[in-house]
């Protein structure tokens, strides 16, 4: 008796979903054919990032990334990397206790509170794709920068160990550009 009632309920549930699919959905089909709703004419469409180790437009990257161009950073008045924490979600970048050049970085709650020499941090800091393995002297000033990328979430596949929380990529401007 209980098995019969469960199969009747399952049949009614499936019948309800089948009738919902038979209704016309022309507006949604038109929207799918029109492409993404995100506007590409703005500055976001112009930012080229290398989050997946190849050049891609910011809108085409399928990971949680925040990128700032050099012009955006200059307009905001950012002095060093710690100023990005105020405008980047789920990111804490601050100087460590007792120093003004040691970086304490947390992305999505993953990081290292005290910069101890024997431990690796959970957030990787990269300067022109060179990994800075210690947080000492990692509070980088912002000048001659092309862009800064903050990659949120585990990045171990492309950036190796010590990026369980994410990575901060500092990309300097090329000479002559």
Describe the overall structure.
With 177 residues, this protein is an alpha+beta fold. It has a single domain (39-172), classed as Beta Complex (Ferric Hydroxamate Uptake Protein, Chain A, domain 1), CATH 2.170.130.10. The chain contains four helices and ten strands. It has helices at residues 2-21, 26-34, 70-76, 156-159, and strands at 48-49, 56-57, 65-69, 91-95, 103-107, 110-111, 123-127, 130-132, 145-152, 166-172. The strands form three sheets. A five-stranded mixed sheet has the order 3-9-10-7-8. It has a three-stranded antiparallel sheet with strand order 4-5-6, with no helix packed on it. The protein has a two-stranded antiparallel sheet with strand order 1-2.
Describe the structure in brief.
With 177 residues, the protein is α+β, with helices and mostly antiparallel strands. The chain is 23% helix and 25% strand. It has one domain: Ferric Hydroxamate Uptake Protein, Chain A, domain 1, CATH 2.170.130.10.
Mean pLDDT: 77
**With helices defined by DSSP (H or I, 4 residues minimum), what is the helix count?**
4
| Class from helix and strand fractions | alpha+beta
Estimate the helix proportion, in percent. Answer: 10-25%
Assigned CATH superfamily? TonB-dependent receptor, plug domain
Report the biggest beta sheet as strand number plus sense, adding barrel if it closes: 5 strands, mixed
Morphology: globular
Radius of gyration, in Å, reads: 23 Å
CATH topology: Ferric Hydroxamate Uptake Protein, Chain A, domain 1
Give unreliable regions as ranges.
Answer: 1-43
Q: Which CATH architecture?
A: Beta Complex
Q: Provide the domain count.
A: 1
Terminal Cα span: 78 Å
CATH class: Mainly Beta
Oligomerization status of the protein chains: single chain
Compute the number of strand runs. Answer: 10
Instruction: Indicate the proportion of strand residues.
Output: 15-25%
């Amino acid at each position: 008796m209980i098995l019969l009632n469960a199969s009747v309920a399952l049949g009614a549930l499936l019948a309800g979903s089948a009738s919902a699919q038979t209704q016309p959905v022309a507006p949604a089909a038109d929207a799918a054919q029109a492409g993404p709703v995100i506007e590409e004419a703005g500055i976001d469409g112009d930012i080229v990032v290398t989050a997946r180790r190849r050049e891609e437009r910011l809108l085409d990257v399928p990971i949680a990334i925040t990128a700032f161009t050099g012009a955006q950073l200059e307009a905001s008045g950012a002095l060093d990397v710690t100023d990005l924490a105020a405008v980047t979600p789920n990111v804490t970048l601050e100087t460590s206790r007792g120093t003004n050049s040691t970086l304490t970085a947390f992305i999505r709650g993953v990081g290292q509170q005290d910069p101890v020499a024997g431990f690796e941090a959970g957030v990787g800091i990269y300067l022109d794709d060179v990994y800075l393995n210690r947080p000492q002297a990692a509070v980088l000033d912002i000048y001659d920068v092309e862009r800064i990328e903050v990659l949120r979430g585990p990045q171990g596949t492309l950036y190796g160990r010590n990026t369980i929380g994410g990575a901060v990529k500092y990309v300097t401007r090329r000479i002559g550009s």
